[in-house]
Write a structure and sequence with these properties.
Radius of gyration: 15 Å
Distance between the termini: 30 Å
Order of helices and strands: HHHHHHH
Number of strands: 0
Largest sheet: none
């Protein structure tokens, strides 16, 4: 059952469910990916992550324990955003959509998640900065793979 839920979630996320996201002008690099090397964006994103995300996803992006196994209420714990998690397996458009509207809205089909949408809490630029911070912590190899994923989508 656990594996089936995880595969279903991964499949739904990978398909992207026809996502289209309007980004602020200048927010993307020439290849369409979000920047993660701009020091000001990364620093701002770190502050926002600490205030809005760390309580669930961990101060060090480590996520909650046993994050691949649904709890008694059927919710998956918050995943890590470091290289040990699956965040970097998704393109920027999907990541932005998840942060903006929440996991339940993106996955659909009765999927249960405690990940709310932050579109009414954070501006588009603040969401981009949080993602820039997260991406800046990944090892070079993971950043390169993530860039390839963005290039394909």
């Amino acid at each position: 059952m656990k594996k089936t839920v995880a595969i279903g979630v991964a499949t739904a996320l990978a398909l992207g469910l026809g996502l289209s996201v309007v980004l602020s002008s200048g927010a993307q690099s020439a290849d369409g990916a979000l920047p993660y090397t701009d020091p000001a964006s990364v620093a701002e994103g770190a502050k926002i992550y600490d205030a809005q995300c760390a309580s669930c996803h961990g101060a060090n992006l480590e996520g909650e324990a046993d994050w691949k196994t649904p709890n008694a209420d059927g919710y998956l714990p918050a995943p890590p955003h470091d290289a040990s998690g699956h965040t970097w397996h998704h393109d920027d458009s999907l990541l932005i959509r998840i942060v903006t509207v929440g996991s339940e809205a993106v996955v659909g089909n009765g999927y249960k998640s405690t990940m709310i949408g932050f579109g009414d809490v954070l501006s588009d630029d603040e969401i981009l900065n949080v993602l820039a911070f997260i991406k800046s912590t990944w090892p070079t190899e993971v950043q390169e793979i993530h860039s390839e994923i963005n290039a394909r989508n």
